[in-house]
């Protein structure tokens, strides 16, 4: 396009070498902002939430598992993970491994949206990272940190990239079938919930004393992390359309509507059945609402978001408070933060409800087609019930695929890792917690920090001093 065609545009919108014609500056700015909001959900959001929600002796280890995963995923992502998830097709479920570091590649247009690959690589990274951080929630309070260091890159490579390519890549098998997963109900939440539960089975449970009593060491800190998680979800779902559009606005509004409804529903159920308005329960209801709306955020109407909130605040509550306590298998597996209920069940529920409530017009705005995506209720109204049943069938097919993928791959990874290092810390180290795992504690006794400052943390000989370990009891009742 010749410069003459840009007559009348303000100088800040004129294309130049750093802002080519194909790039929309507004979309690029929003996508970078949305990605950063999602990143803040992890660092420091989940770091703070985990650090505050666990027993005092596990605060450092829990927070550090999250911090390590965030950094490890980024290096693997630009090294090979992004191209395996969104690059050239290797086969219908997987992309070819390649680096995402070259200037030429990073400055090319992304596979969707009007911004460069550099922006898309960053945006998709924060989604990949938070998935691993959510898996960590099921393993807090006993996993060997060295095993976690191996687990993160292996699971990213052999599980996450499969799910992301098959469901989100335009060349993926489920994407071509027409599955609805607006922003990660399948790829992130169902995957992390199933993988976390599976890994928890292989790692084994916490000590009996920890399982029986595991109080949050700082509820206010936990709430601060939960608040960052909730507000950061504006970027999580608002970035789904890859543009500053009405669909992005709707996705953000629906996200908060569903979440508030879910929180209140969970709270009411706690009051009715347990006679106590539980703060921890409210946080769980908040999380299930955020998860449930994610696969449908920009393709359902506001009234549907309220209905989804009612479902996400009640069905996972029932599975956690009733089904869990009656199931031998669920009782056997020690899922510390209940990610099976808050992410796997809520994510699957969101996928199913998307198959019921997805509006044809909103699907058109997101997917640019009227023919493939239609919720069952609207299909009946349109007189094309088969289209709706087909959509619901694809949603269920996707759920089955993600469950099978994560049970098998996560199990194989855990089996492989335990041949290298133990998956679980020793009982002796678990009695101690952070001090045994990292030689550090979250909270020093008054005056102790001054006394030990130079010796413990001032040089390479800090391990020579054995700090007194105060054993404490308690449990956060997550399930």
Your description of this structure?
It is found in: Cell membrane; Membrane. GO terms for molecular function: ammonium channel activity. It is a multi-pass membrane protein. Its main location: membrane. The model is unreliable at 454-479 (pLDDT under 50). It contains 20 helices and two strands. It has helices at residues 25-53, 59-86, 103-106, 117-137, 145-168, 173-177, 185-203, 208-212, 219-238, 246-274, 279-293, 302-326, 328-332, 339-357, 360-367, 376-382, 385-417, 427-432, 434-438, 448-456; strands at residues 89-91, 94-95. Helix 1 packs parallel to helix 4 and helix 9 runs antiparallel to helix 10 (246-274). The N and C termini lie far apart (61 Å).
Briefly say what this structure is:
The protein has helices at residues 25-53, 59-86, 103-106, 117-137, 145-168, 173-177, 185-203, 208-212, 219-238, 246-274, 279-293, 302-326, 328-332, 339-357, 360-367, 376-382, 385-417, 427-432, 434-438, 448-456, and strands at 89-91, 94-95.
Sheet/helix structural class: mainly alpha
Number of domains: 1
Question: What is the N-to-C succession of helices and strands?
Answer: HHEEHHHHHHHHHHHHHHHHHH
The number of helices is 20
* Largest sheet entry: 2 strands, antiparallel
In total, the number of strands is 2
Give short descriptive properties of this protein.
479 residues, mainly alpha, Ammonium transporter fold, two-stranded antiparallel ribbon, 1% strand, Ammonium transporter, ammonium channel activity, NH4_transpt_AmtB-like_dom, Ammonium_transpt_CS
């Amino acid at each position: 396009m010749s410069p003459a065609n840009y007559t009348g545009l303000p100088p800040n919108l004129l294309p130049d070498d750093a802002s080519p014609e194909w790039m929309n500056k507004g979309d690029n700015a929003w996508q970078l902002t949305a990605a950063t909001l999602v990143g803040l959900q992890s660092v420091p959001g989940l770091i703070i939430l985990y650090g505050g929600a666990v027993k005092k002796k596990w605060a450092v280890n829990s927070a550090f598992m999250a911090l390590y995963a965030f950094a490890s995923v980024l290096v693997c992502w630009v090294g090979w993970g992004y191209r395996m998830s969104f690059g050239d097709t290797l086969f219908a479920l997987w992309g070819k491994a390649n680096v995402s570091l070259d200037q030429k590649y990073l400055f090319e247009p992304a596979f969707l949206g009007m911004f460069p690959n550099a922006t898309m690589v960053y945006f998709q990274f924060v989604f990949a990272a938070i998935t691993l951080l959510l898996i960590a929630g099921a393993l807090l309070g006993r996993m060997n940190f060295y095993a976690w260091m191996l687990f993160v890159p292996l699971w990213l490579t052999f599980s996450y990239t499969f799910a992301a390519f098959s469901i989100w890549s335009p060349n993926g098998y489920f994407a071509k079938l027409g599955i609805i997963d607006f922003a990660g109900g399948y790829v992130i939440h169902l995957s992390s919930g199933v993988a976390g539960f599976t890994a928890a089975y292989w790692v084994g449970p916490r000590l009996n004393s920890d399982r029986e009593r595991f109080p949050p060491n700082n509820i206010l800190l936990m709430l601060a992390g939960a608040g960052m998680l909730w507000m950061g979800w504006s970027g999580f779902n608002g970035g789904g359309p890859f543009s500053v559009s009405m669909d992005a606005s709707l996705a953000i509004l629906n996200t908060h509507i569903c979440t508030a409804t879910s929180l209140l529903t969970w709270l009411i159920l706690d009051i009715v059945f347990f006679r106590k308005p539980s703060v921890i329960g409210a946080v769980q209801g908040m999380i299930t609402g955020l998860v449930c709306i994610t696969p449908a955020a920009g393709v359902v109407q506001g009234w549907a978001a309220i209905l989804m909130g009612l479902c996400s605040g009640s069905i996972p509550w029932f599975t956690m408070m009733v089904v869990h306590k009656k199931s031998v298998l669920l009782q056997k597996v020690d899922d510390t933060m209940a990610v099976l209920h808050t992410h796997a069940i809520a994510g699957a529920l969101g996928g199913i409800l998307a198959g019921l409530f997805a509006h044809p017009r909103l699907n058109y705005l997101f997917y640019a087609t009227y023919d493939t995506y239609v919720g069952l209720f609207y299909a009946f109204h349109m007189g094309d019930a088969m289209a709706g049943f087909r959509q619901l069938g694809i949603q269920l097919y996707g759920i089955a695929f993600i469950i099978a993928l994560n049970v098998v791959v996560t199990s194989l990874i855990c089996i492989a890792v335990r041949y290298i290092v133990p998956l679980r810390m020793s009982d002796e180290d678990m009695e101690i917690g952070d001090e045994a795992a990292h030689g550090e504690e979250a909270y020093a006794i008054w005056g102790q920090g001054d006394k030990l400052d130079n010796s413990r943390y001032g040089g390479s000989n800090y391990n020579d001093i054995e700090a007194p370990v105060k054993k404490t009891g308690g449990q956060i009742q997550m399930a």
